[in-house]
DNA sequence: ACAGCTTAATTAATGTCGTCATTAAAGTGG
DNA sequence: CCACTTTAATGACGACATTAATTAAGCTGT
């Protein structure tokens, strides 16, 4: 199982990684805090920290209050030690953002996509243009960029090179990594948008502190990110979490994936609109795009019993879907996100109740069901955490032997 | 995330654990094999191995073939270094088995349960009696028993003391660990029977070599064991894998758990019998217990179109349930077990086909769907692997400081 | 049968790294 | 300015793995 041999160096590596992670995730801490939370001895902490400071990864940031005794020095990850870029390849927009290590946005760029023809090459071009745009805009050298995280709304098969299957974009086996690679040397991390969003919520949002959490995303499509033992679970070929296409109504409505009775065929935005239309005698929901029509539907629920009933049914389906997640994963937390779920925020009590009806008592009581905190824009933020996660995991050591950078 | 500090000792610990695990799981190996598979240097291997041999954990077992050059020495875990006990607390029987470290059965004991009144104290008594029986029968001292693994058909909440919720036995919050603890000092490992069975298949059966696998068990009840990254995933309160109570037919048949449309309400043994009876105009399936009635039904399918249809429908439901597992977990392998699934073995092609209809293409193609190899008796074997897993994880060092045992 | 070759295992020297114990530093309060 | 307290830095020590060099133990062919 464990294939990595342990050597004396790996001890240092692990400890560096542990300290750096604590500092990154839990803000400024003193050496004493680190000592308590990692269990390492004082000299070891000081030793590692002095390395990290020497390399510019960590900086001292003021002194802590003290009532008697030498006050301890606050330590934090140097915000400008390096930068990361997060990209959100959505169905209608490619958004590129540049962050420092405090995850503050320094620059943004956006490129609308024509849903009719979303050529992979076009998207790759947008990503490369965005990288260029945000770095020049913020006057950041590419040499100081740790890497580029890219969240794509589709299945991302990780291999030697990430390959993307995105039904919504009409992509099948698109070698997105290779396409982007041809225009930049920056390290690339491509992942499912649901996973990157989940990662953002896990580190900075509703998932903080949870060990096992599920991020259930309902937008045009329906998906989920599974966090087990604090990290994303991706499965054998990185497609785990395809919650939207689990069967909830055996033999039910036909889903756009071809199967019948998928959850997405009941609670995806399009499905909700369709169901309302059917219930309403064929009359369509007013409004232009899906997003405004869902908003209109939610508003109409105040006066229209039909709209209300459709939304209540939606809560029932969604609750059952959440119950399935709870029964299978036994998470501490289920976080609902995605723009449709956000628009349906008022249904949360009904969803909870429906989940309670369908889930087993014991796991249901262990799980809290909440709304996400960061909004849908967090896909890029979450993507940007991917290179950061790598930095933390490697203890801040660049993979190759270019340790001369300081 | 990682709370364990790394120290120089932990290096040795990890390497011991890695070597021991390789030796246990992949049979006799040479020092050279270990060197290649772990990446450690030759002297390090020799050093650790000589410790292990000195402590009696490992023995040399003959020499390997050689065509020129000094032949290497085969090494293996000493079968009689220690013993483990596995217990299967089923719904009708408590089975206790004693194994050596080669996982050879040395002694067995069985205690039928009266399903009407399965008092926790009675079960605990049977377990204790069984421990006594198998150790005396095989003339093994309790001091040489590493621990007792117990697989229970119910949710096992791990805490300071394992607490069992077993609907089928009418148990709620039963402090089984405390009950057994009062009669023995042996280390106890209590877990869900599905998990222990999955563990057995993972190490010795259909799961060998898989990193991510799901063991789907269909018997009277329906459950699953989830193996992620080679180990059981238990979730926040150890109830992960409650596949049987996920909703497959929204608003469908009422399940014994109280919810509606659970998978178990369609493919559990009782449900199949009920569905046949309904389809057959109320006439019951002949036969005594569930097991023989399912067998009768399978046999009847050769001549009765009704029976055939019921079984085909069952394959459809089961396939959809498997598809849900595939979509959510993206496993390399789905292994079907449990006595009902075994009886329905002939349906495997139909189940595969149904799963293919409902699952997404990409994850479906990545997953193989197979029958289990070890049979239902493997619950005790799997339970017995729990103390072994602990031994391997700790590198063969007893937790307390009693290293003077050799 | 014995040199000559190959592969396996052990020994020796080196270097990394965390721990314990001790010392230096940097505050507060009387 | 001197006790007292808490934080940080040193130095001796021991645990371990690594590389390089030896020794051990078998084959092969003349």
UniProtKB/TrEMBL annotation, chains A, B:
One of its GO terms (molecular function) is kinase activity. The keyword Lipid metabolism does not apply. It holds the Pfam family ROK. Keywords: Kinase, Transferase. This is Sugar kinase. InterPro entries: ATPase_NBD, ROK, ROK_cs, WH-like_DNA-bd_sf, WH_DNA-bd_sf. The keyword Transferase applies. Belongs to the ROK (NagC/XylR) family.
